[in-house]
């Protein structure tokens, strides 16, 4: 388990920056050494994406899509306060994991289908909000895939600059 100070040191960011991320991403803050390795892995992913020039509003939108998808898939029923972070840091089946939560959705991402034994493509009457309005996992997944592809393209475009920057920085006296 880690403290906020431990995470700040590991991520080379001031604690106030990490606290800001906690607030904006609406992730729980703990006192003392209450932060898991998965929590640190999530923050590391956000820091990496910001370092690559991905705008925080895009990362936040992707985060909201992921959380909504995980709620529609009932991942939030585990009872954990950090249910949306508990898969962060896992390294198996990267092709099936969401970018921020790192949750394994059981299919390759990007994909246009979910096959988890539930009929996510069924349209419901639009009489009420949320799931009652036809908001289903397939629609959220499709929105997620679109934004995910944009972020991946932005990262790919920035990688040559990052490599050259690292070479340049290594030559500094």
What does this structure look like?
The protein is mainly α and 173 residues long. The protein has one domain (4-170). The protein is 49% helix and 0% strand. The protein is built from five helices and no strands. It has helices at residues 4-11, 15-24, 37-51, 56-72, 137-170. The longest helix has 34 residues, at 137-170. The protein starts with a helix and ends with a helix. Mean pLDDT is 85; it is low at 115-130.
Strand content: under 5%
Q: What is the overall silhouette?
A: globular
Residue runs with pLDDT of under 50 for 5 or more positions: 115-130
Got a strand count? 0
Radius of gyration: 18 Å
Query: Order of SSEs, N→C?
Result: HHHHH
Number of helical elements: 5
Estimated structural class? mainly alpha
Classify the helix fraction into a percent range: 40-55%
Mean pLDDT: 85
Largest sheet: none
Q: Ends: how far apart?
A: 37 Å
Number of domains: 1
Topology, please?
Elements: H1 4-11, H2 15-24, H3 37-51, H4 56-72, H5 137-170
Helix pairs in contact: 1-2, 4-5
Features:
173 residues; mainly alpha
What's the quick description here?
Helices cover 49% and strands 0% of the residues.
């Amino acid at each position: 388990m880690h403290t906020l100070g431990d995470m700040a040191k590991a991520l080379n960011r001031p604690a106030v920056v990490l606290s800001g991320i906690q607030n904006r991403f609406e992730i729980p803050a703990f006192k003392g050494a209450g932060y898991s390795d998965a929590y640190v892995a999530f923050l590391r992913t956000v820091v990496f994406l910001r370092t690559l020039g991905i705008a925080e509003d895009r990362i936040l939108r992707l985060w909201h899509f992921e959380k909504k998808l995980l709620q529609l898939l009932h991942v939030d029923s585990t009872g954990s306060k950090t249910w949306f972070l508990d898969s962060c840091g896992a390294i198996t089946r990267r092709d099936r994991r969401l970018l921020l939560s790192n949750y394994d959705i059981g299919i390759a991402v990007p994909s246009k289908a979910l096959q988890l034994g539930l009929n996510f493509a069924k349209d419901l009457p639009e009489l009420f909000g949320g799931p009652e309005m036809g908001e289903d996992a397939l629609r959220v997944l499709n929105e997620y895939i679109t934004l995910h592809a944009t972020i991946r393209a932005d990262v790919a475009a920035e990688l040559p600059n990052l490599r050259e920057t690292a070479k340049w920085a290594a030559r500094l006296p």
